[in-house]
Design a protein that fits this description.
Chain lengths: 325, 431
């Protein structure tokens, strides 16, 4: 494993599988009465959030606390430069506090990478601008593996023993929506490809990244054609600010061409699942009956987020924890 | 109090070694074994003599941002880079959009005395792109402004651009355009392409530069006026300029040293020292720019020296200022990118870094051949010096934002003479 987790591209196949397997291990702890492990006792994890994201912050917070780490939530909303102190000065403050790991969410792409120059602790990217969100990709991979790998599709029971060590080889994953601005898409393309999945991106041409042909996987503008050959369909959130910026004519037209409703879901193979990183725009990219269907893994993704983030913190900080105890 | 020098054994434009006698501010004599009993002798064996370099595009930051650079520190950096004249861009605080401000900058240059400072006047009041500044007043001022630019901003309004091009014909002026279509580059951070897509940085499409250049070439042709294109950065821009020149349009163009050497993949670690506008492009663009500079489609090299204080670059990429220092590395970069590659010889370097920019900027007394009777503006360059890593902390510029930090560049400026007075000797400023 690298010292920091900035990009899903930093993870080798072995690294990624180790994280998923560790998460399986930790998930079995979740079932027990005592849900806390002493592994990171005495270590400090700082959640440095420049954007509002209750779901990601609380997920990291729960993960760190279940490993007995001390958690400091450092909320720094708004531009770091326009008002208040610079990212560097904040980093030096955290350094002085003795942060062993900094989990950073920032509106600027690359802010976590910059942070690694200024702190000695580990840095975990919890979403940076339109760049990446690697722990989201890890929890998505974990969820896909849980649902579609091993055990003949019998997903919710069992210890996960027959999935361990496995990737996502041959699975067809279709990611749909605002790929251009999506950090979730970037991280998933890299990670899922590393794990052997075939990734297809579907978006209106205005929301497809430039030079997408250099990315792993392929791109398409035709959702219906891709749905028929997908094992996983991952819907991306359409941000409010894109809706009036000429990326598409109207929300209505977007929904018609790229939204997933019950009729479209029926085109998918029977075993295929529907994912969404949340928060959803019900009625825009995903219809309520799809979000609430039993093919939807949206709630499972949230639950898995905690265990996968526990695995990341455990693997990145576990060694340091042993030294200090 | 005029200095008298005998530069012994210099190779003019890389030619056969000869002696150059500087007296009363001019080159009095050139020949072998010259006798000049009153002169200080400078042993220039192995050094190349070039006409003093002229920069069409320098940000000296004064007035207003003296924390980044002053006329004094910026012109000292210029002399160390082998320059004898620089054009000071107008985006100061206050903006150089009146005769008062351009005269102030010009006087500060005179007082510093390292190089001739030629202020560039803003095209529009406050660089706001709406109302023409008093271009004639700046032209008639003591600063004798001939180059006008809203650099940093594009004169995007086509009608205003047309009027500006026409208006300055009355005093032989030229509009230097920062070609950037503003709507196509809202929030843009890095060349739109594979690297920006991967890094999640908003793209700056080549078409946003090319569209403005094409439009301006058509306007310049229509009103028969002079257009200069700042910091050309794309292969497509080169094609458009080549086409326009072929049709007889009065268009000239510059390229920066950094666009001749660096590419967008350097942004991979989000280090904003590589953030600049226009952005670093691809290898294909670099190759096209080098070829265009060699064949004359691009007339000259201009540094776009853009000093910034440390805190403007020690940030996340999107929050960082655009720009790179360049005066002290320009000739060495051109040496590496153009001479070592065989694309230009030293005569070509003299043309692209002295004669052509002096002609475009209408700079009297600069860019003339190293020949008897010319003003003694001379740069002595040691092309044999082994490549050494660039150390921005050793620079005379107040700022440290050199993208070449740590990069090994060949050569070094040994001496610079401004009208017969040494501003730089042994690679150090004389005062």
């Amino acid at each position: 494993m690298n010292r920091h987790l900035i990009s899903a591209g930093d993870l080798s196949r072995d690294d990624a599988i180790l994280i998923l397997d560790t998460a399986e291990e930790l998930a079995s702890v979740e079932g027990r009465a005592i849900r806390k492990l002493p592994t990171l006792r005495g270590l400090t994890v700082v959640n440095l959030f420049y954007e509002d994201s209750t779901r990601t912050r609380t997920s990291f917070e729960a993960a760190a606390k279940r490993l007995s780490a001390d958690v400091i939530n450092f909320s720094a909303k708004g531009s770091s430069v326009a008002k208040g102190e610079s990212l560097k000065d904040t980093a030096l403050t955290l350094e002085a506090m003795g942060a062993d790991a900094v989990v950073i969410r920032h509106e600027a792409s690359g802010a976590p990478r910059r942070l690694t120059d200024w702190v000695s602790g580990r840095v975990v990217n919890a979403g940076d601008g339109t760049h990446e969100h690697p722990t989201q990709a890890l929890l998505d991979a974990f969820t896909i593996r849980q649902r579609l790998v091993g055990g003949e599709g019998n997903t919710l029971s069992g210890s996960g023993a027959d999935r361990r060590g496995q990737g996502l080889d041959g699975l067809r994953v279709t990611i749909v929506g605002d790929v251009l601005h999506s950090r979730v898409a970037r991280s998933n393309v890299l990670l899922l490809s590393t794990l052997g999945a075939q990734v297809t991106l579907v978006a209106p041409p205005t929301l497809m990244p430039h030079a997408v042909e250099t990315w792993p996987g392929r791109a398409s503008y035709d959702l219906d054609a891709e749905l028929r050959k997908s094992d996983v369909v991952m819907m991306l959130r359409v941000q409010q600010e894109r809706m009036n910026a000429a990326y598409f004519p109207t929300v209505r037209e977007y929904r018609r061409r790229y939204g997933l409703d019950a009729g479209r879901m029926a085109l998918m193979p029977e075993h295929a699942i529907v994912m969404h990183p949340g928060p959803m725009n019900r009625g825009v990219e995903i219809a309520a009956e799809v979000a609430d269907s039993d093919r939807s893994t949206i709630v499972a993704q949230v639950a898995n987020g905690v265990t996968v983030r526990m695995a990341v913190l455990y693997l990145m900080l576990g060694g340091a924890g042993e030294e200090t105890s | 109090m005029s200095e008298e020098w005998l530069i012994a054994g210099a190779s003019i434009l890389g030619g056969t070694p000869t002696d150059i006698h500087l007296k009363d501010g001019v080159i009095s004599e050139i020949g072998d074994n010259l006798a000049a009993p009153g002169a200080t002798v400078l042993d220039a064996r192995g050094l190349i003599a070039l006409p003093g370099l002229v920069d069409l595009h320098t940000h000296l930051r004064e007035p207003g941002r003296e924390d980044a650079e002053t006329v004094e520190t910026g012109t000292r950096a210029a002399a160390l880079g082998g320059f004898t004249a620089v054009h000071a861009m107008a985006n100061t605080e206050p903006v150089a959009d009146t005769a008062g401000v351009v005269e102030q900058v010009w006087r500060l240059g005179e007082q510093a005395g390292y190089v001739d400072v030629r202020p560039v006047g803003a095209v529009t009041v406050g660089l706001n792109g709406r109302q023409l500044a008093e271009l004639g007043a700046m032209a008639d001022s003591a600063a004798r402004v001939r180059v006008f630019s809203d650099d940093g901003f594009c004169v995007a309004d086509p009608l205003l651009m047309r009027r500006a091009l026409e208006y300055v014909k009355a005093f032989d002026g030229v509009i230097a355009q920062h070609a950037q279509e503003p709507r196509l580059t809202e929030g843009a951070q890095l060349n739109e392409g594979e690297v920006a897509s991967r890094l999640g940085l908003a793209g700056w499409p080549a078409a946003a530069e090319e569209a403005i250049i094409a439009r301006d070439c058509l306007l310049a042709a229509h009103v028969d006026a002079a257009l200069h294109v700042c910091h050309v950065s794309t292969a497509g821009s080169v094609e458009i300029i080549r086409w326009a020149k072929g049709r007889g349009v009065q268009v000239t163009a510059e390229v920066t040293p950094h666009h001749l050497l660096l590419t967008d993949d350097l942004a991979g670690d989000y280090n904003p020292v590589f953030k600049v506008n226009p952005p670093l492009r691809t290898k294909a663009d670099v190759d096209a720019l080098r070829e265009a500079l060699a064949d004359g489609t691009i007339d000259c090299v201009a540094t776009d020296h853009a000093p910034h204080p440390v805190e403007a670059k020690e940030t996340e990429w999107a929050a960082a200022a655009n720009g790179m220092t360049g005066l002290e590395t320009a000739l060495r970069v051109v040496h590496k990118a153009m001479v070592e590659t065989g694309l230009l010889d030293w005569a070509g370097v003299a043309d692209r870094m002295s004669a052509r920019p002096a002609a475009i900027g209408r700079v009297p007394g600069h860019g003339l051949p190293v020949a008897p009777g010319s003003p003694a503006n001379i740069t002595l360059y040691d092309a044999r010096a082994a490549a050494t890593p660039v150390d921005p902390t050793a620079h005379a510029s107040k700022s440290r934002n050199s993208p070449f930090a740590g990069m090994a560049l060949p050569g070094g400026v040994a001496a610079t003479f401004l009208r017969g007075t040494a501003t730089v000797l042994d690679g150090k400023v004389t005062r």
